[in-house]
């Protein structure tokens, strides 16, 4: 359900229980919303309506969540609500980063490169970012692959002896960073 399905066709807005602003909005932003029903109570006096408790997530044109709210609204029952087409896709209730990735890809379509750390977990991306601080992308791919194969999680890296990190063939910022952090303890 979207804003036109709930607020736009509401008979009455009854109560706002929670309202959280997650990210700023700016003049000129386009805001889209997705709503799901948490609880419903049919009207005792009219068959075509009821009171629903709903939660709504609002997103800007870049797909970033900007607000969340929970409220009670008197609305028409489902069979009386118009069908809606949404200007965005995906399951907005899933906490993942696919919307953010889509925004990045749309913002620079001709600049995207096929790199091994794209669309992976945060750890391999972090490793690539640290390695890329010190050298060019073409020089990072092979050592990055060796390092991530040897240390697939932050814990496996932290638990490994420093000599193992150096022996993994990675002559990069990761090794330098580990040496610096261990000498500070």
Distance between the first and last residues' Cα:
53 Å
Record the strand order, biggest sheet: 1-4-3-2
Roughly what is the average pLDDT, rounded to an integer?
77
Uncertain spans: 172-180
Molecular shape: elongated
CATH homologous superfamily annotation of the largest domain: Hotdog Thioesterase
- The SSE string, one letter per element, is EEEEHHHHHH
Q: How many domains is the backbone divided into?
A: 2
How much beta, percentage-wise? 15-25%
Number of strands: 4
* Helical run tally: 6
CATH topology of the largest domain: Thiol Ester Dehydrase, Chain A
Radius of gyration, rounded?
24 Å
Helix content: 25-40%
The CATH architecture of the largest domain would be: Roll
Structure description:
With 185 residues, this protein is an alpha+beta fold. It folds into 2 domains: 79 residues, Roll (Thiol Ester Dehydrase, Chain A), CATH 3.10.129; 70 residues, Hypothetical protein, domain 2 (Endonuclease III, domain 1). It is 32% helix and 24% strand. It has 6 helices and 4 strands, in the order ββββαααααα. A 4-stranded antiparallel beta sheet has the order 1-4-3-2, with no helix packed on it. A hairpin with a 6-residue loop joins strand 2 and strand 3. Helix 2 packs across helix 3.
């Amino acid at each position: 359900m979207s804003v036109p399905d709930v607020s736009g066709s509401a008979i009455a807005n009854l109560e706002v229980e929670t309202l959280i602003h997650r990210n700023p909005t700016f003049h000129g932003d386009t805001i889209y919303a997705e709503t799901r029903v948490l609880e419903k109570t049919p009207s005792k006096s009219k068959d075509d309506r009821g009171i629903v408790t709903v939660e709504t997530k609002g997103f800007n044109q870049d797909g970033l969540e900007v607000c969340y709210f929970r409220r009670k609204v008197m609305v028409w029952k489902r069979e009386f609500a118009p069908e809606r087409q949404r200007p965005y896709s995906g399951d907005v209730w899933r906490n993942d980063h696919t919307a953010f990735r889509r925004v990045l890809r749309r913002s620079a379509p001709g600049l995207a490169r096929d790199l091994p750390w794209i669309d992976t977990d945060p750890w391999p991306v972090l490793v690539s970012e640290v390695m890329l601080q010190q050298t060019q992308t073409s020089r990072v791919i092979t050592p990055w692959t060796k390092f991530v194969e040897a240390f697939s999680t932050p814990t496996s890296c932290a638990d490994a002896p420093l000599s193992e990190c150096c022996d993994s063939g990675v002559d990069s910022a990761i090794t330098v960073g580990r040496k610096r952090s261990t000498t500070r303890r």
